[in-house]
Amino acid sequence: MLNFLFFAPIALYFIATLLQFLGTAFRKEGLKQAAWYGLLVSLALHTAYLVVRGVKGGRLPLSNQFEFATAFAWGIALMAVVLRIAGKRGMDWVVTAGLPLAFLILSYAAFQAKPDQIAAELMPSLRSSWFALHIGAAVFSYSGFALAAGFSVRYLMKEKKLGTLSANARAEEEAHLEKLDTLSYKLVCFGFLLLTVVILSGCVWAEQAWGSFWTWDPKETWALITWLIYSVLLHNRIRKNWRGKKMAWFCAIAFVCVLFTFAGVNKLLAGLHSYA
């Protein structure tokens, strides 16, 4: 059952991604509507997997790299659905960014462990009241940064075509670009706030688990580097009114640091967080 609930969403995310891209490329509303329903079904199965895994394990399914990646993909899909519903049909482009991101992150998770294998017990350092807050905040922080990067890439692709459009089409496209820019900024603010929660709660948890608020562990260090990069982005947005192309490039590149903190540190830099 667990294998089905895990692999079915991967297949459906992929199919829905293809439908969304084809629907967008050929302006077929039927294909985009099918992609939307595919995302909803995928998210429902994905949610069921996390719930069943949590019930079987007797804990939140967030204790290792596989579980975090699975939750990360779920967070992206959930936020895409919420944003699409909040914006109604005028926000169907949210699905274009959310679907491939959810598919890629969940596919990455598939290479980390077998979906039906569940650790019997948490290691001592993870048995903390800070567990849910720290890791749960990280899931949604990374998801916000991921979607912001996805919207930024879309911005750069569409901005490049502005010069080829008629005056009316150009005005419409500029309004859409403004929406992309604003939503990317809001998602960065959301992700930054939660990343701050991640770092502060991690400091308290580290003191309880290892006797020190900060150990310069690679995961801690790169979380701080990521926080500083996004703080620079927000500073320049507020103080220097960074918008448009400059903001989009910075946002897309900053997400590379998020990915390294999420996966690269674990593979390349051994430390106290190597299990995650």
Description:
With 276 residues, the chain is mainly α. Helices cover 78% and strands 0% of the residues. 40% of the residues are buried. The model has no long low-confidence stretch (mean pLDDT 91).
Q: Uncertain regions: pLDDT < 50 for 5+ in a row?
A: none
Helix residue percentage: over 70%
Give the total of beta strands: 0
Output the structural class.
mainly alpha
> Could you describe the largest sheet, including whether it forms a barrel?
none
Count of runs of 4 or more consecutive helical residues = 8
Note the overall shape.
flat
Question: What's this, in brief?
Answer:
The chain is mainly alpha-helical and 276 residues long. The protein has helices at 2-26, 29-57, 65-87, 93-110, 131-159, 167-210, 218-239, 244-268. Helix 7 runs antiparallel to helix 8.
Defining traits:
mainly alpha; about 280 residues
Blueprint (SSEs and pairs):
Layout (H helix, E strand, L loop, with lengths): L1 H25 L2 H29 L7 H23 L5 H18 L20 H29 L7 H44 L7 H22 L4 H25 L8
